[in-house]
């Protein structure tokens, strides 16, 4: 029998972090979830807290973290991740991507653990190459409002490769494209929670700009499966994980409206500064090296997400009543 592995997940009480904690527990790991709860929520891991293999530490990973026990994997997922969050928390976003990555890498190095950084399609900025392969270097405005996130993640990738090359740390870099599913924060401003809640409440659905910008949405279970496969692979190069099924934001609004059977009107709002015009992952590398591709169809994933938000809205209603 192999000894039980221990994985540290920073941002473990967030949307992706909490799904990752669940998957690692299901794979037989002991999980240490680290979160400072500025955008994460204990509610996301409440169902795990009774389990003896799960531990929660409230800590800001932008400050060093010392752990007594052996650690096999460090997965750095802590960061504000929605455009509204990183506009409100620009310094914290820069710190967790830079200092937080440095501290997480330091922990991995000290423990001789495998390190995995949650990077992002935002490293490609407003891309001039379409779809985006990992070899594309990106088109990022360093001083625009999104720069705090994009540059922090670009720094995080550079730091990860430096620890790999200079210290021989066993590293992984996942570039995560738009992902959706249960446990997205209701008011994080991202398009999925916004449209679903607006449609459920028959409120106007706010399409930014003319809605011709595109995104490609991956269901969270598919994404977590890709990340787990990357973790257990020997791939050190950045790897895109996302769903190549691309659509315009207007089509996306119409799809959600139809699935819910909503009476919402679709309205236009100003386009945020530096909002990327297109985004679609090239997943050739993930297919070839991880044997991974997404499996959950958009309507199926959306329905599960709609059910989640329906439940949340019903709970909110019950609390009021
Ligand atoms: N968006 C929108 N209405 C909203 C929220 C977002 O039209 O209420 C658009 C946004 O301008 C962007 C896309 O939806 O083009 C995805 O936005 P999100 O904030 O989810 O993530 P991004 O991909 O921009 O990081």
Number of helices in the DSSP assignment: 9
Low-confidence stretches: none
Beta content:
15-25%
Computed Rg = 19 Å
- Quote the average pLDDT: 97
User: Please, what is the oligomeric state?
Assistant: single chain
N-to-C order of helices and strands: EHEEEHHEHEEHEEEHEEHEHH
Largest sheet, if any? 7 strands, parallel
Strand order of the largest sheet: 3-2-1-4-5-6-11
Bound molecules: uridine-5'-diphosphate
- Structural class given helices, strands, pairing? alpha/beta
Tell me the number of strands: 13
Shape: globular
Helix residue percentage: 25-40%
Distance between the termini: 53 Å
Structure description:
The protein has 321 residues and is of the alpha/beta class. It is 39% helix and 17% strand. It contains nine helices and 13 strands. The protein has a seven-stranded parallel β-sheet, sandwiched between helices. β1, α1 and β2 form a beta-alpha-beta unit. α3 runs parallel beside α4, α5 runs parallel beside α7 and α5 packs across α9. The radius of gyration is 19 Å and the shape is globular. The N and C termini lie far apart (53 Å). The mean pLDDT is 97. Uridine-5'-diphosphate binds next to α5 and β8.
């Amino acid at each position: 029998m192999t000894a039980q592995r221990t994985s540290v997940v920073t941002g473990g009480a967030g949307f992706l972090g909490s799904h990752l904690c669940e998957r690692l527990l299901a794979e037989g790991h002991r999980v240490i979830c680290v979160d400072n709860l500025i955008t994460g929520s204990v509610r996301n891991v409440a169902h795990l807290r009774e389990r003896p293999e799960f531990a929660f530490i409230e800590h800001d990973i932008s400050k060093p973290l010392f752990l007594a026990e052996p650690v096999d994997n460090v997965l750095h997922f802590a960061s504000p991740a929605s455009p509204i969050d990183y506009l409100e928390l620009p310094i914290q976003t820069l710190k967790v991507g830079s200092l937080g990555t440095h501290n997480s890498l330091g922990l991995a190095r000290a423990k001789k653990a495998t390190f995995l950084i949650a990077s992002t399609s935002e490293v490609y900025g407003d891309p001039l190459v379409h779809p985006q392969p990992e070899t594309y270097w990106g088109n990022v405005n360093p001083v625009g409002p999104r720069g705090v996130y994009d540059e922090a993640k670009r720094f995080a990738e550079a730091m990860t490769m430096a620890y790999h090359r200079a210290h021989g740390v066993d590293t992984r870099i996942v570039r995560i494209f738009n992902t959706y599913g249960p446990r997205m924060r209701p008011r994080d401003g991202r398009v999925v929670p916004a449209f679903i809640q607006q449609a459920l409440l028959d409120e106007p659905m706010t399409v930014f700009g003319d809605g011709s910008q595109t995104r490609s949405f991956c269901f969270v279970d598919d994404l977590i499966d890709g990340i787990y496969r990357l973790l257990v692979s020997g791939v050190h190069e950045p790897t895109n994980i996302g769903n190549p099924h691309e659509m315009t934001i207007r089509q996306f609004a119409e799809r959600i409206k139809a699935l819910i059977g909503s009476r919402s009107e679709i309205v236009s709002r100003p386009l945020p500064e530096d909002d990327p015009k297109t985004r679609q992952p090239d997943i050739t590398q993930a297919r070839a090296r991880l044997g991974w591709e997404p499996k959950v169809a958009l309507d199926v994933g959306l329905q599960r997400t709609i059910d989640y938000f329906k439940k949340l809205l019903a709970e909110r209603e019950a609390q009021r009543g």
